[in-house]
Each structure stands twice: as C-alpha cells, then as structure tokens.
Amino acid sequence: MVSARDIEAGMANQEFCLFYQPKYSLRHSGVAGSEALLRWRRADGSMLPPAEFIPVAERAGLLPRLTSHIVPLLFNDMATLHKTPYTPVSFNATASDFRDDRLVRQILGELSASGIAPEQLEVELTEGEAMHSGAQVQENVQYLRDAGLGLAMDDFGTGYSSVDTLSRWPFSTIKIDQGLIGRMLTSEKNAHIVRSAIRLAHELDIDLVAEGVEQEAQYHFLLEAGASKVQGYLISRPLGLHELMAQSQFTGCPVSIAVGTIHMAIMDHIQWRKRLVSFVVRSAMLAPGAPSRQLADHPQLTASLCAIGRWFDSAGPGLAWLADFERAKLVHDELHAVGARAVARVREGAGLAEVTPLIDELQRVSLGLLDILMRLENQALVALYGPKCATH
Ligand code: G
Ligand code: MN
Prior knowledge:
Order of helices and strands: HEEEHHEHEHHEHEHHEHEEHHHHH
Bound molecules: guanosine-5'-monophosphate, manganese (II) ion
C-alpha cells in the first residue's frame, strides 16, 4: 500500500510517466487517436497502475498537484505524437482538477507555447465526476471546450444518470464502459444497451469509443452496430511512448467495412421520412393561411446536409466501391426533391387531398432508397464475412 508521502517522493523523483493506448477507427480501419494513461515506475522497478495510487492521492487531496505534475509530461510527449495517427490524445481528469482555474490556465498556456492545435487534446471525465461537481467545475470544463479541446464521458453506463449528464454537459465523445462491452455478447440486455448507446451518440452527432475490446467477436458486434471507434487489448495494450512510436502496425485488427453506418443510414431515413410526412399532414390540416405552416418544424430538406447526405461524404471513401453506392446518392437526391416539393405545397396553402399524391410519391422513392441501402448492407456483409476474393 502506498502513502501520500510516497506519491510526493515519486513526483520529486520523476517516477510518473504516461502510457498510450491507441484507439482504432471502425470507419477507415486505422489508428485514430490514443488515451494517455498514468503509470508509476517505482525506484524498485515495479510499475503501478493508477488504481493503486489514484485513490490514495485523492484522499490526501494530492490529485490536482499530481495532474499538474503530469501536464508538462503530456506536452513533452505531444511534441512526438502530434501529426501522428495517435492524436487526438485524451487524458483522464477528475472534478477536483477543475475546482479552480489553475489546470485550465496551465493547459492553455502549454498549448499556446507548443503550437499544438487544441483539437488534438481531449479531456476524459467520468459521468460520476461530472454529476457530483458544482458550477465552478462545469465552467472550467466549458472553458476548455470553448478553446477547442474535446470532452469525453468516460465509463459511460456506470453512473446513475448518464443521459441527464450528457444533456447538460458539452460532451463530444461517449466512451462505453468496458464492463458493458465485456457482457454484451452473453447478455441480450447488455447488447441492447450498447446498441442504444451507439445510436444515442449517432443522434447527438458525437463520437463514440467502445472500451475494453478484447475479442474479435466483440469487434464485429461493434462494427455492425455502428460504433465509430474501439479501444482495448484486441488492438493494443497501453504502450510506453517509444514502444508506441516503434509500432508499425496493429495485427489484432480484422478487416473492417463500415457496415454499421449503413444500418444507421437506414434508421436515419426511416426517421426522416416519418417526420416529413408528419409535418406535411399536420400543416395540411391547418387553415390555408395559418402562420405555423411556415414553421421549420420539418427534417432537413437539403440533401447534402441531412444525416444520410453527411454519411455519403464521410463514409464515401470506405464504401464507394460497393456496387450500388452511387445509385443510392441519386435516389436520395430524388427523395429530397419530392420532400421539398411537399413542404413547399403546404406552405402555399395546399390541403391534405392535394398533398396526398406527393406523400405517395415520397413513399415510392423512400422504398427505393431503403431497397438500395439494404442491398448495400448485404454487399458489405458478404465482403466482411463471405468468401475472401479481391473485391476491394
Ligand atoms: O477508466 P478508464 O477507461 O480510463 O480505464 C482504462 C483502464 O483500462 C486502463 O488502466 C487500461 O490499462 C485498462 N484497459 C484498457 N484496455 C483494456 C482491455 O481490453 N481489457 C481490460 N481488462 N482492461 C483494459
Ligand atoms: Mn479513460
């Protein structure tokens, strides 16, 4: 058992260092950032993980000092890591680090001195830490967000009110707790929760990292469910800086085809279509000159700006080789043209009988789009699990 005095001595003797665990993108099959993890290399050669000294530091009120001791180490390492696929780098913080603005000033000072872009750094805070902290903590964290740093909710699923905290704090990433990931293949309930968390992040338009991925079957589950990134022993253990930089490839990663993003596109379309029809029907029932016919209470009408339009752009490079990808784009454009026409007609005062043919037309194009998206999904699944031939 270590004591607070040991920790102080460890800092004086420069015994703390950071290890880095790569995150792996399921979108483009490559490293996409890393998490900095604190390690204590003691004089006797032993290596202590945070669980064995962070609670001691916390009880002794030493955490803010320990964090500010680590920040210069992080920036030192960033000089090596920046412009590699290991950025953005996330680091773990606690609410006590943000009780005053010292850490914020230290980070922003180091950032401007280093010339590193703020987007290359992300703070990880657990939901519990966020929930039990006061306005001052939230203000300081917001300050870093406004400066351009990312903010990840660590261990998502272990607190009591993750969703409430998500709605109140400016999180840009959800990290699903490794416990949920570990159980999702053996418990249906856990599988539903993981899939819903992935969908939640997608709808909030924020990033998602699944933690503690150890098996290929977990990797495939997450790929199909549409997770954007994974982290865990399957990809790599946390590595020291030199070991990390010497690593040329991560062999544990199976081929990935972003099949889960097709599922997301299908769900996005189903929601879009329903919201559009709902707006058109509700508006058509109003008096022809009713001001609320002019409201923008309808889904995105511009094809390139809706969720599917943005998916074509972001997932395009990874999926464009699928036979029906370009055709899906054409049908999607047609869908938006019909949707925009229906909205324009109700704005001009059309009643239900007049817009019904447009709703029917929308239905026809919508089914065409779903048909193509499902074909894409089949093609992607065959490419992923079927006989391996040189399709891409
Ligand atoms: O709470 P947080 O997510 O920051 O914890 C990360 C910890 O989990 C690190 O100490 C890291 O070493 C450990 N870890 C990382 N990947 C895996 C994994 O695949 N399996 C297990 N069991 N632990 C992991
Ligand atoms: Mn973490």
